[in-house]
Fold this protein.
Amino acid sequence: MIDVKWLRGDTEGCAKELARKRFALDVSRYRELEDARKRLDVETQELQAARNRASRRIGDLVREGLSVEEAKAQAGREIADINARLDALAQENDALHAALNAFLSAIPNPPAPEVPEGEGEEQNLEVLRWGTPRELGFVALDHVALGERRAAMDFDAAAKLTGARFVVLRGELARLHRAIAQFMLDLHTREHGYEEVYVPYMVNTASAYGTGQLPKFAEDLFRLDGDQGYYLIPTAEVPVTNLARDAILDNAALLPVRMVSQTPCFRSEAGSYGRDQRGMIRQHQFEKVELVQLVRPEDSDAALEELTGHAEAVLQRLDLPYRKVLLCGGDMGFASRKTYDLEVWLPGQGRYREISSCSNMGDFQARRMLARFRNPATGKPELLHTLNGSGLAVGRTMIAVLENGQQADGSVVLPPALRPFMRGEERILAPG
């Protein structure tokens, strides 16, 4: 949630910053809602004061000659009239606050000052490139052609079981998929200091609202039938970050909190019709190892660099060429104030493709969730800053391993870092 104090105090300045994210703040509508809120607040306070005066008038009426019973009856009629007007105002106030909350909930997180200007991915800023794409010496196959050679990657079977944008992995690829996730978890827990957490794959409405998926992106989620209001998670960011919802971390010395979780992710891909229909790049169900950090506000900029470095370490250990890109304002996610994308080189496509997105959300999610820590200097609760990033997407990492490790005969040489998780095997999908 955007800082309402900032929005009230500098509406035009806020609108200018939001425009950098291709969001047009309806200033007139906001002022209309805000003026109505102020009016209702004033009217409510005036009526409450009038009710208090009416209660105190009983003594005055008695002194003016009325009996106690007559004084109470007269004051009671006046109070009843005031209460009826207060009840009507309360209903109007509830409707107004619902409209105001809906308005505020749709406002994205403004970008950080250092985020480059731009409308889309063409204006993103490349920060670095790591590794050099290997000269294969033969025509590169994509992951689909490599996987289908041994029927280890079966999209037809998945379509029979469920539908489009799903896959069945068999044998060596099923094992490779599991090995990649295990490698990532071990790296992040043993070397990067993350606590592994296992979380539900379904969340309630409050959790989806807390991290910014609801209400704006409801069509991108899979909602379960029934009255419970459960949603399948689009990423582990949602349940893991919400562990801090409606809580105050009293011991600030425990910050930063670093958590990692491997989960399936479920996305409707409502706005991606026709994009990446071939293969595993864009699916309704995929696995991801997610990194989440909860930090002090003054530490969040450095934490983003650290978290992104942890995701980069996976690619470096697997010797996968990649580039790091700072997203421009127009290409950033709803809840992020600054985002780095990591894009891995895929020989089968002859280009870099996103494999991780690492974001600093500032206090935007924490304000929606009421996720706080107690500042030892003041003794008062303050909003945490939240960060998250893929460390990495398992399926896309497998794609990169297959395409970058492919040999002329269609087999794939595995990175040495993965071999201990693959029973020591150096090569998979060997012909014959």
